Automatic annotation (TrEMBL), chain A:
<keyword id="KW-0472">Membrane</keyword>
<keyword id="KW-0812">Transmembrane</keyword>
<feature type="region of interest" description="Disordered">
    <location>
        <begin position="112"/>
        <end position="134"/>
    </location>
</feature>
<feature type="transmembrane region" description="Helical">
    <location>
        <begin position="6"/>
        <end position="26"/>
    </location>
</feature>
<comment type="similarity">
    <text>Belongs to the CPA3 antiporters (TC 2.A.63) subunit G family.</text>
</comment>
<dbReference type="InterPro" id="IPR005133">
    <property type="entry name" value="PhaG_MnhG_YufB"/>
</dbReference>
<keyword id="KW-1133">Transmembrane helix</keyword>
Automatic annotation (TrEMBL), chain B:
<protein>
    <submittedName>
        <fullName>Na+/H+ antiporter subunit E</fullName>
    </submittedName>
</protein>
<keyword id="KW-0812">Transmembrane</keyword>
<comment type="similarity">
    <text>Belongs to the CPA3 antiporters (TC 2.A.63) subunit E family.</text>
</comment>
<keyword id="KW-1133">Transmembrane helix</keyword>
<feature type="transmembrane region" description="Helical">
    <location>
        <begin position="32"/>
        <end position="50"/>
    </location>
</feature>
<feature type="transmembrane region" description="Helical">
    <location>
        <begin position="62"/>
        <end position="87"/>
    </location>
</feature>
<keyword id="KW-0472">Membrane</keyword>
UniProtKB/TrEMBL annotation, chain C:
<keyword id="KW-0472">Membrane</keyword>
<comment type="similarity">
    <text>Belongs to the CPA3 antiporters (TC 2.A.63) subunit F family.</text>
</comment>
<feature type="transmembrane region" description="Helical">
    <location>
        <begin position="6"/>
        <end position="24"/>
    </location>
</feature>
<keyword id="KW-1003">Cell membrane</keyword>
<feature type="transmembrane region" description="Helical">
    <location>
        <begin position="60"/>
        <end position="81"/>
    </location>
</feature>
<dbReference type="GO" id="GO:0015385">
    <property type="term" value="F:sodium:proton antiporter activity"/>
</dbReference>
<dbReference type="InterPro" id="IPR007208">
    <property type="entry name" value="MrpF/PhaF-like"/>
</dbReference>
């Protein structure tokens, strides 16, 4: 009985996280803010769902596998978020009027000014000699 | 495809991790499974080698548990906050790109900090400048310079935690002297 | 318990519909990738829900595979978007 209550709370909590992602995707104004809504609540959402599964089956042998599942997500989701975010910033998929401050833009502008050869590919300019092709 | 010889000690954390993955996948941590896993892990590490990961040689388990607790707390709070922002603010949301200079210059620590920060909703690493170890974050719901300053404090607090867990001895020492002075 | 499963399924369906709306509307390919990532995450959640309901563990492999597909997919698209002038 008490297990059922815990599982119910975990399942509904996890589903609400997915709903948060959906609502955020529709309501947020530009790509980068949508990314926050889309990728991050999923980390908590998956954790809650996996916890629900662990409580429901109640076997300890399963726990390492579930932890592994979650750790894989922990390792991969920031990487894909970073890749998409970087691509979005470089291809100018953000609305500057919605930014209160943009400290990267200053650096990019300065780098373009000191290194005119790179100025023509302003969308690609790195702040400094960066981390190479990643 | 030649490579310089990487001593086993630097590969050991990777091998141990692979053995744990193997055991978890089989849902069985008996010695036989682990030994076979170790053989496979050793073969994988040697045949599909990656550039050696430069760990700092320190790992303090005692700090890990409170860090995980803090991380989960932040995760829950921030996820709820993003949900609330999506419902209440929606299209009129304002965000910012904030530069956060970090203390450590180790690639490993900068990566770990960036990872931890990215996982917490509300901030996202856009660009990393390795030469000055600066993270450029995109943050939700920043209305003023004070909000940006709060984000910077938060990120640097996360970094301090990570230095305590697995920072290099030099980073740890500068951290301690700075705290002693305060 | 069965009511909870229906409620959860309902919430997930709304979430997937919202994500699909964003995937159709666009405007850019990165938005669509992001939306499809959410769709995959919801599918994963559905798989877990199915496992909880049926008290079995057959879908765990699918769960890992789906998260890997999402990861590789979004990284690849982001890569091509960045490189294309």
């Amino acid at each position: 009985m008490i297990n059922d209550v815990i599982v119910s709370i975990l399942l509904i909590g996890g589903a609400l996280m997915s709903l948060a992602a959906g609502i955020g995707l529709v309501r947020f104004p530009d790509l980068l803010s949508r990314m926050h809504a889309a990728t991050k609540p999923q980390v908590l959402g998956l954790l809650l769902f996996l916890l629900a599964l662990a409580v429901e089956t109640g076997s300890w042998a399963l726990v390492p596998l579930l932890v592994l599942c979650w750790i894989f997500q922990l390792l991969t989701s920031p990487v894909s978020a970073h890749m998409v975010g970087r691509a979005g910033y470089r291809t100018r998929h953000l609305r500057r009027d919605l930014l209160t401050l943009d400290e990267l833009d200053d650096v990019v502008a300065r780098a373009a000014a000191t290194d005119p050869g790179r100025a023509d590919r302003a969308g690609e300019t790195r702040p400094e000699a960066g981390d190479g092709p990643t | 495809m030649s490579r310089q010889h990487i001593p086993l000690v630097t590969e050991l954390p990777l091998v141990i991790w692979l053995v744990l993955v193997w055991g978890a996948l089989w849902q069985d941590f008996s010695p036989g499974t682990l030994v076979f896993g170790a053989v496979i892990a050793y073969a994988v590490v040697n045949f599909f080698y990656l550039p050696p990961l430069e760990l700092t040689g320190r790992f303090n388990v005692l700090w890990v548990i409170p860090f995980v607790g803090r991380f989960l707390y932040q995760l829950v709070i921030a996820s709820a906050e993003v949900f609330w922002l999506a419902l209440s603010k929606g299209p009129s949301l304002r965000s910012a790109v904030v530069a956060v200079p970090l203390r450590s210059s180790s690639d490993f620590l900068v990566t770990a900090t960036g990872h931890a920060i990215s996982l917490i909703p509300g901030s996202l690493v856009l660009e990393v400048d390795r030469s000055t170890s600066t993270l450029y974050l995109h943050c939700l719901h920043i209305d003023s310079e004070e909000d940006a300053e709060a984000i910077r404090r938060d990120v640097r607090a996360t970094e301090v935690w990570l230095i305590r867990i697995m920072g290099s001895r030099a980073d740890l020492r500068t951290l301690q002297t700075r705290e002693a002075r305060r | 318990m069965i009511a909870v499963v229906y409620v959860t399924g309902g919430i997930l369906s709304v979430a997937v519909l919202l994500a699909l709306y964003r995937a159709v509307r666009g405007p850019s390919i990165l938005d669509r990738v992001l939306a499809l990532d959410v769709v995959l995450a919801v599918i994963g959640a559905g798989l877990v829900l199915n496992m909880v309901l049926g008290r079995h563990l057959d879908n765990l492999v699918l769960l890992v595979a789906i998260s890997l597909i999402g990861f590789i997919g979004s990284v690849t698209v982001a890569r091509f978007v960045t490189d294309r002038k």
